[in-house]
Amino acid sequence: xxxxxxxxxxxxxxxxxxxxxxxxxxxxxxxxxxxxxxxxxxxxxxxxxxxxxxxxxxxxxxxxxxxxxxxxxxxxxxxxxxxxxxxxxxxxxxxxxxxxxxxxxxxxxxxxxxxxxxxxxxxxxxxxxxxxxxxxxxxxxxxxxxxxxxxxxxxxxxxxxxxxxxxxxxxxxxxxxxxxxxxxxxxxxxxxxxxxxxxxxxxxxxxxxxxxxxxxxxxxxxxxxxxxxxxxxxxxxxxxxxxxxxxxxxxxxxxxxxxxxxxxxxxxxxxxxxxxxxxxxxxxxxxxxxxxxxxxxxxxxxxxxxxxxxxxxxxxxxxxxxxxxxxxxxxxxxxxxxxxxxxxxxxxx
Length: 349
Fold this sequence. Notes:
This protein has helices at 17-29, 74-77, 218-231, 246-252, 267-270, 301-309; strands at residues 33-43, 51-63, 69-72, 82-86, 92-101, 106-111, 135-140, 148-162, 168-175, 187-189, 195-202, 213-217, 237-238, 241-243, 257-263, 277-278, 284-285, 289-293, 296-297, 316-323, 326-333, 335-336, 344-345. The protein is mainly β. It folds into three domains: 29-111, Trypsin-like serine proteases (Thrombin, subunit H, Beta Barrel); 127-231, Thrombin, subunit H (Beta Barrel), CATH 2.40.10.10; 237-345, Pdz3 Domain (Roll), CATH 2.30.42.10. The strands form five sheets. Strands 14, 15, 18, 19, 20, 21 and 23 form a seven-stranded antiparallel beta sheet that branches. It is elongated. The chain starts with 16 loop residues before the first helix and ends with a strand. The mean pLDDT is 87.
């Protein structure tokens, strides 16, 4: 037999333990979640030189530390002429871009400290210890509606979704917490209010939430953001090559990474890798096709990117490639490709 319905003492509503937990998360963390506005300049008319600011989009973000650094998605701030950040207390401050890693859809922006606004950092959870089924809370600005909370669970781990430049964003967190346009860049939190990940995109044919949302894990965010704040950029481990778009591979039915050009002075050049070139009679000769790094098979640039990502600048690796129908292996030093010595040039015949 069911027991009596709990009474409401002193007019306070009866709340379940999970409800109290959700309310506590919002009360403690919501002030650390911000709205990011992307503004672009546009001419007033075709024959006018006057320009005006046009809102290009909005997203969410969260305070990283007490120095004014804020983390959001790269696609939220992409191509912005000016950025503003709005806080829960109604204050709006201009922001500048510190750096970004488009291939992880992560960006760091910064607001100038005015002495009137306190910044509380977002506590981080260890995303490597996540379990499917645990609670997930999203806070953001869906459709421009600031300070919106939705709740769900961790639906799956280790998902891969399309990024930019032919690279998959791997190890993504899947959640059924409702995520809609404008939530991008907002935090996904655990039951303690700690950061599990950053809401990035939804899987939907209509553009609205279908119960499948994805978040970049906190471990990836911490690694990328720390580098951006320290150096203004992310170390890009590589060997100094440029590659063709995957469409070329499909058209030619070639598996691997076709070297389009080799950076002068790079470790790839030192190791003798060759880029694509044109002969004197106009014939195009494809460059080397990278098919392996150490014991990892390379089928695409995504494979190559992820193989290098797990390694360190200064290490030497065995790179296998196809040249003139034969498999060749060379020892190549890993470099930071964001510090290219000279522009890449095609190989000469």
